[in-house]
Design goal:
Layout: H1 14-29, E1 39-43, E2 50-53, E3 69-72, H2 86-98, E4 104-108, H3 111-117, H4 129-133, E5 139-141, H5 150-160, E6 165-168, E7 172-177, H6 180-201, H7 212-223, H8 227-243
Parallel strand pairs: 5-6
Antiparallel strand pairs: 1-2, 1-4, 2-3, 4-7, 6-7
């Protein structure tokens, strides 16, 4: 398509916007949201510093693709920052600026992941396929130092190291990925894994943990099961489309 053929209304990030808006809508249905707080972002340029982010004070069940704000992590004085929550700008800006591989960054205070983040020992024992998916594959940050502003926000990206899931002690969870679908699928399953752990633990009976070898084998099998995440988000979008949702507007 030549520049002359491009409509003035053409948005090169439209599908990314729709994916992120659909993820926000379904985060509500999966009960991963918290009031009008928490934030999802997705990088749209090569070095990851330009990113889409949900607007401040908007409930996720109402966010449309066109509502997402385009920000530049290097433009610290940009006018667009007034349209987003200050903690979201600080945390997501820092991650996108410091960790280019983190194309999609999803941060929530979901019930079970946050409960795990409140434990002194946040180990997630390998007791089912979902918990095994994250066996030795998430980082834990025990250094909470207030809401994600200033130095706290700039510190968080280093805690990811080589992991895509960061359990934020006394705070919540952050999940990163190359695509919206991949990150959202990981967030969904991490919450399910935490729910299974707490449900089993609440029985008061001894947990049936598998061996290190079996847990590691299963985690690697998850890593090679790469079509699942794309199919998950595609189906969620299809359901919204069938329902006549305005998420894609």
């Amino acid at each position: 398509m030549s520049l002359a053929e491009v409509s003035p209304d053409y948005d090169p990030h439209l599908e990314a916007r729709r994916d992120l808006a659909a993820a926000l809508r379904w985060a509500v249905r999966y009960n991963l949201h918290e009031g009008v707080a928490n934030h999802f972002s997705f990088a749209v340029n090569d070095d990851g510093t330009q990113f889409l982010l949900n607007p401040r004070n908007r409930h996720w069940s109402r966010v449309r693709a066109s509502d997402l704000v385009l920000l530049d992590a290097n433009d610290l004085d940009g006018d667009q920052t007034s349209k987003v929550d200050i903690t979201a700008w600080c945390i997501h800006g820092a991650v996108h600026r410091q960790v280019p591989r983190a194309r999609c960054v999803l941060h929530v205070h979901s019930k079970y992941a946050t409960a795990l983040a409140c434990l002194k020992d946040p180990r997630l024992p390998p007791i089912d396929q979902n918990t095994m998916r994250f066996y030795n594959r998430f980082a834990f940050d025990p250094g909470f130092d207030g809401m994600g502003l200033g130095e706290e926000a700039e510190r968080l990206p280093s805690m990811l190291a080589d992991k895509d899931v960061l359990l934020m002690g006394n705070h919540g969870v952050m999940v990163c990925g190359e695509t919206v679908g991949g990150a959202f699928d990981a967030l969904y399953y991490f919450e399910r894994a935490c729910e299974t752990f707490f449900t089993a633990k609440s029985s008061g009976r001894e947990l049936l943990e598998v061996s290190h070898e079996v847990a590691e084998k299963t985690a690697r099998q998850w890593e090679n099961y790469d079509e699942l995440d794309c199919a998950h988000l595609a189906e969620l979008r299809a359901i919204l489309d069938e329902e006549g949702s305005n998420y894609a507007d």
